[in-house]
Amino acid sequence: MAALPHSVRKGFAFPLRVRYSEATPRSRRRSLDSFWMMNGKAEPYRTEGGRAANSMRIVFMGTPESAVPSLQRLLSDGHEVVAVWTQPDKPAGRGDQMHAPAIKTFALERGLKIEQPQKIRTKDAKELFASYQADLAVVVAYGRILPSEYLTAPRRGCINVHFSLLPRYRGAAPVNWAIVNGDEKTGVTTMFVEEELDSGPILLQRETRIDPAETAPDLMRRLAESGAELLGETVRRLDELQPVSQDESKATFAPLLTKETGMLDWASPAREIERRVRGLQPWPNAYTHWNSQRLIVWKAFVQDHPTHSAAPGEVLAAHGDELIVSCGDKTALRLLELQLQGKRRLPARDFLNGTHLKIGDRFGQD
């Protein structure tokens, strides 16, 4: 291969067109042309192998669907993803059949190297990670805290995409707790990873409003796309960005969700319960008990209701589409969609027709 111009060897150059190898299909060339020719800006050269000359060797670490847009962005930006690390396949659903993480499915479709170590603190796992001689590691919802050897192995360190405006909501479930706690805004953060959980210096952040009716899965989908865009910008500008230390005095935490987190306390105000209904999806869900059965509440809204003296959890209305329940502080919640244990999700009307629930009955009684 002929020697590249000095500006390309440094990582950037400004040609009129992207250079492709003869083996690059025309359809792929058109796709790449449209990507690089954004806003009339100059574009980086590509090597004969098809990668951008300023691309990096990256190890990607992620597991759920929310990590897929970030991996896709790195590939679209021309980086060489030398390996994808994800959690092992796990049993799920009826029959406990083994299911692959969303990242594994995506990576397999693109022929990427996949690693699913059961343990990451073993000598073999650490040596394998170091063997890639990566420029950078990118972590998006991998699900494990990385030992120091993983943070220092890549030449330029390890970057994390976190789904909150750090230092607010460090931890495993920032999107869920932002909704449950009634926050009006949230966002995404890119940062360098340090050994202490989500405490590393911040590179970039992007803020967004939380819609009053938004569920955790809806918000997560938006943040996953926003996080991928922010990751692309972060990697592209890595040389110029100045990391900013987090303000420890403002740190809050988003603890791991458990099944018990979803148990509804009808003595809470209706607005708090409604936020839990939206914020605790898709798991553990907001649930109560009726006739000794677990009952998931999928959709509800705060109902204006005449002042009442009913006990928390007591049914105030049960007719047609109206299923209204007494909550704390003399508030009321209208339940719109429910699911009894082992049954399918039903609108309130169908649920009432099948259960014959009546005024005065009380939820939360085992």
Key descriptive features of the protein:
single chain, 366 residues, alpha/beta, six-stranded antiparallel β-sheet, 10 helices, 17 strands, disordered N terminus
Nearest-integer average pLDDT: 87
Number of helices: 10
Strand fraction band? 15-25%
Helix residue percentage: 25-40%
Please tell me what the overall shape is: elongated
Sketch the major β-sheet: 7 strands, mixed
What class, by secondary structure content?
Answer: alpha/beta
Unreliable runs? 1-50
Strand order of the largest sheet: 5-2-1-6-7-9-10
Count of DSSP E strands? 17
Task: Give me the strand/helix succession.
Answer: HHEHEEEHEHEHEEHEEHEHEEEEEEH
As a whole number of angstroms, the C-alpha radius of gyration is 25 Å
Measure the end-to-end span: 74 Å
Structure description:
- With 366 residues, this protein is of the alpha/beta class.
- It has helices spanning 6-9, 26-36, 68-76, 102-109, 123-131, 148-152, 174-180, 216-236, 270-279, 348-355; strands spanning 57-62, 80-85, 90-92, 97-99, 114-115, 136-140, 158-162, 170-171, 185-192, 202-209, 253-254, 286-290, 293-303, 315-319, 322-326, 332-340, 346-347.
- The chain has 10 helices and 17 strands.
- Helix 3 links the parallel strand 1 (57-62) and strand 2.
- Helix 3 packs parallel to helix 8 (216-236) and helix 7 packs antiparallel against helix 9 (270-279).
- The longest helix is centred in the middle third of the chain and has 21 residues, at 216-236.
- It is elongated and about 65 Å long.
- It starts with 5 loop residues before the first helix and ends in an 11-residue tail after the last helix.
- Mean pLDDT is 87; it is low at 1-50.
